[in-house]
């Protein structure tokens, strides 16, 4: 059982969700050797996006604030953790979060992608402690699936 890691998740007031169903022809996560590669995870909650649109500092209609986007990136990471668990069953087997790639649907004048993806990185550090320290890319894009503001994928090493 994944008692230590899942206990940390519970202490954070969070609960692992069901693994999101793929939106197309792919698997939510796959194992190769001693690594789990997750598909890009959206911030789905019970199958729905809690917010849509591009991330912007402008506050304009149809945009998402950087602070809200960071919260959504945290949810992406939680969904990715669930996908990892679906492959290795016991989250205490995680040796290290190797790489995080975060995609941020960005307004043309938004340059704060690293701060948005910090939502995911911070959660991974809180859940996995030292094993949560990772390499990372934070990429601005024009649009994401379902008009999601953020998407996060992980590479995880396990024993």
SSE layout and pairing:
Elements: H1 3-11, E1 29-32, E2 35-38, E3 54-55, E4 63-64, H2 66-88, E5 94-105, H3 113-128, E6 135-141, E7 150-158
Parallel strand pairs: 3-4, 5-6
Antiparallel strand pairs: 1-2, 2-7, 5-7
Helix pairs in contact: 2-3
Domain Endoribonuclease L-PSP/chorismate mutase-like: 6-157
Protein name: RidA family protein
InterPro entries: Endoribo_LPSP/chorism_mut-like (IPR013813), RutC-like_sf (IPR035959)
Notes on the protein architecture:
With 159 residues, this protein is α/β, with parallel strands linked by helices. The chain has 3 helices and 7 strands, in the order αββββαβαββ. It has helices at 3-11, 66-88, 113-128, and strands at residues 29-32, 35-38, 54-55, 63-64, 94-105, 135-141, 150-158. Strands 1-2-7-5-6 form a 5-stranded mixed sheet, with helices on one face. Strand 1 (29-32) and strand 2 (35-38) form a beta hairpin. Helix 2 crosses helix 3 (113-128). The relative contact order is 0.25.
Largest sheet: 5 strands, mixed
**Rounded average pLDDT:** 96
Rounded to the nearest angstrom, the distance between the terminal CA atoms is 14 Å
Percent of sequence in beta strands: 25-35%
Number of strands: 7
Rg estimate, integer Å: 15 Å
Q: In terms of per-residue confidence, which ranges show pLDDT below 50 for 5 or more consecutive residues?
A: none
- What sequence of helices (H) and strands (E) makes up the elements? HEEEEHEHEE
Spatial order of the strands in the main sheet?
1-2-7-5-6
| Shape estimate | globular
- Strand pairing plus helix content: what structural class? alpha/beta
Q: Level of helix content?
A: 25-40%
Helices, by number, come to: 3
